[in-house]
Every structure is written in C-alpha cells, then in structure tokens.
Design a protein that fits this description.
single chain, 75 residues, mainly alpha, 3 helices, disordered C terminus
Length: 75
C-alpha cells in the first residue's frame, strides 16, 4: 500500500522509478540485494516495507526511540 503510493507519486516526477518483483529478488537475502543494487545503481532507495495487518499488527508497546529518529534525520 505505502510502496504503491510512493511509486504512483514518483511517476509524476522527472525521474526513473526502479522496482523489482518479489519473485525476482528476496530482500531477506543480502547477497541478492547487493547484486541487484550493484547492477541497478539507484540514486536513492525508499524502503516502504511494513507488517501486513494494518495498524492492529503494530505492537503498541514498542515506541520509536530517539536514536531511531536521529538516524532517519541524518540519511
């Protein structure tokens, strides 16, 4: 859902959007991801992975730490 929305939004910009299907690249396999990144050479990477199940799938007891927020701001 989020990933599709990002792709639709970027389609209106002056840029090339690179995507890859799940059956072509398993994001859990670091070597495969590194090979794809090396071959594709993207200028930017947007990670929009989420847990399936909507807001109810997110544990309420796991707040985001300030360290995590700082990391997002620096990149």
């Amino acid at each position: 859902m989020v990933g599709s929305a990002v792709v639709r939004r970027l389609a209106r910009e002056d840029c090339e959007v690179l995507t890859v299907e799940r059956d072509k690249l398993d994001l859990r396999r670091q070597a495969e991801v590194q090979a794809w990144m090396h071959a594709s050479r993207p200028d930017a990477v947007i990670l929009a992975a989420a847990r399936v199940g909507g807001i109810h799938a997110t544990p309420a007891a796991r707040p985001i730490s300030s360290t995590t927020i700082s990391r997002f701001r620096r990149t």
